[in-house]
């Protein structure tokens, strides 16, 4: 270690604690320099030798947006592995690649924005692929494993600094920056906060990113929960990074504040430490902060607090100790170990949903591989660029031999005929020089956005195009050589994309009936396709000048599928989604159904050959009818090795052991409204759903069989120990995922039907047994007691369920917990916080003030009702009631469901945050249920009692 000279500033002294070094550096920065630190792109401070810094590097399942990288399965697929150790190793590999890429490109940041821990509450969420599970225990455990891998295991210096996304209660994309998630206290504490809390408490999280949406009427970027909850879970300084553009949304789309200075100050005071806004241009944000300082909305202490948190992360990353940082100049990239890990992860992602003996496939079988996903290796918005690629078809060729595998994609082949009698033609391009790499494969880098390729024209012969229907009327069109039709900035239509993709997808079209033909609308621009002398282009949005096409179908996809299916021993129909289309970031799905075209392909294959299996490759669940299918599998888009992994599972080289991380529902009718975030009241997820799922949470079959025995429990020192034995009763080595659930037998409030408290994935040789022991903290049995405003364990009986899924219970026993008895609500002392209801009808929770607190309001200004159970007014009772209200309307109180005992009217309208107190006579003694009815656009914050 180099000795420190007297001139060496303390922040450069590695022998001092990080906190002292941060404090020293903070004192040396000018106010202007500190303000500059608050934008995502932090400039260098050359006079102090402090380098530039940037928060934010996407790394959800590999290094994203920075070029070639190892691409692992999507996050929902990693959740399906139920394997903490595997996910930790994936995180470790990703962080090594971040370091390696950083060494050669300083655009690569070490503050990684990953993982996403939003719970998969609703399967129509467009970003379902980004989360791990609908269950908070599984989500937090997988997230903890991934962040530990990203962080590294050095006690002092972190390999990367993970930030959890997206705080909080964020499960809808459509209008995501203006919708509010109404989250009652029980759901907040028992569900949404848990996924974040357990990962933060594990100690490998550097911070969080607030979500675009509002929670209880207040934007997440000014959430009091950052202070009230997040920062109480750890002594470590946590860095809160805004989502892109969200600070501006506070004024521009949400209209929550009148000025950007006010909004920026509010976000900073609430706990946002780094502002991701206006791209790399920091001037707008810094001007807003300077303006807030001048107006007295911020103090230098507010600035210091945020800068200190950022510096704490930078010191942990070793930036100021390059000689001591064990990760400096290190990192592996696209190694054999990473390629093997990508394949292992893809194999463990596969879930066998149904199998009537069709699988595994025999080695001499003749296979027909059909469907839109059969020869695809799809990426998503947060993928890196593939270095290696394995489609299902390629995996089957590799495993069974190309001579034993027949293929039919199943797309419709069409020609588009113009009113003049000509057809759209794709010009031939020199494949050796223009759009293909050295090995002849389509090179994405040579395609997207090119304007030097010739646009489409029209002639007498034309070109047969593959018309790919992704559902909802959304189409892509592909040339015979594999290039997708796309529209560049100049408006011309070219075959210039290897895949649909991009923030605005320029490769999608819709056919609109028009007279006896169709208009072809380009979705990315909203314009219609026309044919001009200089080529095919997108015209104005007015369809009057657009070309009317006659659609000539030269071959139906079902015909090709039926033809190859009839001659095969087994048919594998590969169906699913393209992650850039329909359900995706900014766009939720509208249905669980497979696109109609894919359903037709499945029916055609099944009609031609009853030995047909459905293989779903998708970012989310589907509602499919498996009754006449002998086998069904699912995998998330599995990254670079999805094809090899599926082939190894289908052939039996690997026994499937993935388990569903979320419920698969049988029908859209089973789903609540996408914006209903009350998982308790709406009976959402496996925790509360009372219907029959298509496939339950935790479900997944194996080629082996397992027996469960010897369930034993022991409670001591605040922990529950549970053990049981799992035995492989088959002649095949395989993994099993043992799951442990609990259930309150006779709860006083609605509790989960069953709830995951522990799990373990184990590998067992034929005939082998293993005793599994789980240490379960008694906190796992708590619920949030709204009557007393705290978590507690209710005394009584609890079932423990050893299971192979949430519906496949193998062993059960009952334990008694003393818990903590709680009496009725002490309303004489505390009154009633309006949001602490037990039950509600037609009510939304909103912000009491712009800073903190909750109130309630009838949905759409109508009539709502709140129920507060077992309210104790004491032996002497009360004689008066008061209500804190804003807006306009009527509050009615009654004991039980009878006529109102008190009516309080706010006749003079007020602003939404201008509360007034209304008083009335109200007589009650003893314990009663209280019903509160609200009529009109009235905000109720609190009800108090006197006398």
Automatic annotation (TrEMBL):
<dbReference type="Pfam" id="PF01915">
    <property type="entry name" value="Glyco_hydro_3_C"/>
</dbReference>
<dbReference type="InterPro" id="IPR026891">
    <property type="entry name" value="Fn3-like"/>
</dbReference>
<dbReference type="InterPro" id="IPR036962">
    <property type="entry name" value="Glyco_hydro_3_N_sf"/>
</dbReference>
<dbReference type="InterPro" id="IPR036881">
    <property type="entry name" value="Glyco_hydro_3_C_sf"/>
</dbReference>
<comment type="similarity">
    <text>Belongs to the glycosyl hydrolase 3 family.</text>
</comment>
<keyword id="KW-0732">Signal</keyword>
<dbReference type="InterPro" id="IPR005084">
    <property type="entry name" value="CBM6"/>
</dbReference>
<dbReference type="Pfam" id="PF00933">
    <property type="entry name" value="Glyco_hydro_3"/>
</dbReference>
<dbReference type="InterPro" id="IPR013783">
    <property type="entry name" value="Ig-like_fold"/>
</dbReference>
<dbReference type="GO" id="GO:0016787">
    <property type="term" value="F:hydrolase activity"/>
</dbReference>
<dbReference type="InterPro" id="IPR008979">
    <property type="entry name" value="Galactose-bd-like_sf"/>
</dbReference>
<feature type="domain" description="Cellulose binding type IV">
    <location>
        <begin position="825"/>
        <end position="947"/>
    </location>
</feature>
<dbReference type="InterPro" id="IPR002772">
    <property type="entry name" value="Glyco_hydro_3_C"/>
</dbReference>
<dbReference type="Pfam" id="PF03422">
    <property type="entry name" value="CBM_6"/>
</dbReference>
<dbReference type="InterPro" id="IPR008999">
    <property type="entry name" value="Actin-crosslinking"/>
</dbReference>
<dbReference type="InterPro" id="IPR006584">
    <property type="entry name" value="Cellulose-bd_IV"/>
</dbReference>
<protein>
    <submittedName>
        <fullName>Glycoside hydrolase family 3 C-terminal domain-containing protein</fullName>
    </submittedName>
</protein>
<dbReference type="InterPro" id="IPR001764">
    <property type="entry name" value="Glyco_hydro_3_N"/>
</dbReference>
<feature type="domain" description="Fibronectin type III-like">
    <location>
        <begin position="736"/>
        <end position="806"/>
    </location>
</feature>
<dbReference type="InterPro" id="IPR044993">
    <property type="entry name" value="BXL"/>
</dbReference>
<dbReference type="InterPro" id="IPR017853">
    <property type="entry name" value="GH"/>
</dbReference>
<dbReference type="Pfam" id="PF14310">
    <property type="entry name" value="Fn3-like"/>
</dbReference>
<keyword id="KW-0378">Hydrolase</keyword>
């Amino acid at each position: 270690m180099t000795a420190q000279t007297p001139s060496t500033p303390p922040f450069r002294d590695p022998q001092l604690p990080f906190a002292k070094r941060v404090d020293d550096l903070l004192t040396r920065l000018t106010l202007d320099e500190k303000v500059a630190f608050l934008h995502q792109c932090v400039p260098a401070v050359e006079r102090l030798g402090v380098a530039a810094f940037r928060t934010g590097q996407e790394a959800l399942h590999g290094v994203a947006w920075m070029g070639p990288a190892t691409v692992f399965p999507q996050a929902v697929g990693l959740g399906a592995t139920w394997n903490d150790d595997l996910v930790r190793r994936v995180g470790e590999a990703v962080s090594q690649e971040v370091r390696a890429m950083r060494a050669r490109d300083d655009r690569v940041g070490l503050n990684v924005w990953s993982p996403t821990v939003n719970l998969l509450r609703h399967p129509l969420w467009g970003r379902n692929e980004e989360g791990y599970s609908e269950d908070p225990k599984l989500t937090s455990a997988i997230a903890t494993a991934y962040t530990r891998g990203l962080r590294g295991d050095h006690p002092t210096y972190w390999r990367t600094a993970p930030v959890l996304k997206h705080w909080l209660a964020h499960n809808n994309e459509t209008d995501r920056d203006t919708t509010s998630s109404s989250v009652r206290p029980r759901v907040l504490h028992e569900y949404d906060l848990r996924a974040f809390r357990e990962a933060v408490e594990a100690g490998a999280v550097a911070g969080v990113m607030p979500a675009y949406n509002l929670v209880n009427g207040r934007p997440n970027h000014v959430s009091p929960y950052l202070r009230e909850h997040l920062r109480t879970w750890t002594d470590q300084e946590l860095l809160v990074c805004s989502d892109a553009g969200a600070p501006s949304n506070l004024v521009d789309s949400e209209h929550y504040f009148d000025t950007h200075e006010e909004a920026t100050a509010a976000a900073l005071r609430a706990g946002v430490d780094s502002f991701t806004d206006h791209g790399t241009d920091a001037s707008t944000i810094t001007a807003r902060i300077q303006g807030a300082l001048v107006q007295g909305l911020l103090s230098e202490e507010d600035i210091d607090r945020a800068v200190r948190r950022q510096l704490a992360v930078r010191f942990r990353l070793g930036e100021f100790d390059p000689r001591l940082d064990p990760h400096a100049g290190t990192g592996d990239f696209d190694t054999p170990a990473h390629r093997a890990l990508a394949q292992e992860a893809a194999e463990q992602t596969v879930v066998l949903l149904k199998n009537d003996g069709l699988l595994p496939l025999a080695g001499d079988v003749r296979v027909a591989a059909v469907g839109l996903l059969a020869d695809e290796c799809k990426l998503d918005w947060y993928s890196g660029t593939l270095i290696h690629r394995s489609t299902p078809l390629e995996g089957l060729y590799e495993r069974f031999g190309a001579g034993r595998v027949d293929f039919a994609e199943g797309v419709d082949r069409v020609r588009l005929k113009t009113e003049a009698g000509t057809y759209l033609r794709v010009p031939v391009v020199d494949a050796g020089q223009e759009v293909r790499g050295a090995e002849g494969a389509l090179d994405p880098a040579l395609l997207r956005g090119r304007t030097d390729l010739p646009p489409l024209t029209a002639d007498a012969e034309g070109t047969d195009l593959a018309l790919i229907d992704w559902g909802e009327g959304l189409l892509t069109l592909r040339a015979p050589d594999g290039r997708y039709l796309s529209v560049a900035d100049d408006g011309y239509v070219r075959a210039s994309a290897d895949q649909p993709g991009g923030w605005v997808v320029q490769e999608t079209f819709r056919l609109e009936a028009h007279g006896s033909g169709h208009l072809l609308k380009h979705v990315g621009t909203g314009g219609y396709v026309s044919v001009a002398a200089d080529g095919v282009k997108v015209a104005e949005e007015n369809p009057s000048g657009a070309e009317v096409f006659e659609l000539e179908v030269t071959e139906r996809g079902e015909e090709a599928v039926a033809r190859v299916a009839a001659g095969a021993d087994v048919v594998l129909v590969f169906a699913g989604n393209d992650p850039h289309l329909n359900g995706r970031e900014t766009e939720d799905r509208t249905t669980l159904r497979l696109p109609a075209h894919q359903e037709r392909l499945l029916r055609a294959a099944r009609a031609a050959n009853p030995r047909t299996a459905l293989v779903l490759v998708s970012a989310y669940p589907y509602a499919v009818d498996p009754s006449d299918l002998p086998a069904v599998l699912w995998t998330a888009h599995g990254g670079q090795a999805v094809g090899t992994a599926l082939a190894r599972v289908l052939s039996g080289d690997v026994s499937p052991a993935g388990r569903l991380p979320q419920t698969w529902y049988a029908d859209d009718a089973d789903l609540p409204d996408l914006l209903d975030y009350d998982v308790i009241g709406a009976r959402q997820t496996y925790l509360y759903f009372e219907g029959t799922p298509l496939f339950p949470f935790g479900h997944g079959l194996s080629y082996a069989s397992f027996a469960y025995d010897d369930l034993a429990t022991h409670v001591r020192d605040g922990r529950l120990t549970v053990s049981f034995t799992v035995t492989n009763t088959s002649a095949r080595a395989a993994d099993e995922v043992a799951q442990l659930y609990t259930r309150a037998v006779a709860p006083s409030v609605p509790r989960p039907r069953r709830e995951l408290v522990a799990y373990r994935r184990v590998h067992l040789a034929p005939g082998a047994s293993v005793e599994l022991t789980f240490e379960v903290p008694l906190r796992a049995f708590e619920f949030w007691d709204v009557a007393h405003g705290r978590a507690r364990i209710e005394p009584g009986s609890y079932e423990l369920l050893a299971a192979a899924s949430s519906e496949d219970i193998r062993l059960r026993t009952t334990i008694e917990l003393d818990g903590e008895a709680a009496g009725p609500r002490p309303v004489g002392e505390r009154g009633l916080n309006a949001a602490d209801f037990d039950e509600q009808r037609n009510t939304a929770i909103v912000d009491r003030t712009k800073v903190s607190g909750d109130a309630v309001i009838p949905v759409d200004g109508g009539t709502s009702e709140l129920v507060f159970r077992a309210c104790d007014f004491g032996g002497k009772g009360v004689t008066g009631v008061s209500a804190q209200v804003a807006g306009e309307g009527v509050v009615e109180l009654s004991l039980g469901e009878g006529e109102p005992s008190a009516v309080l009217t706010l006749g003079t309208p007020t602003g939404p945050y201008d509360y007034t107190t209304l008083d009335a006579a109200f007589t009650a003694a003893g314990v009663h249920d209280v019903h509160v009815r609200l009529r009109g656009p009235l905000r109720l914050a609190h009800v108090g009692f006197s006398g």
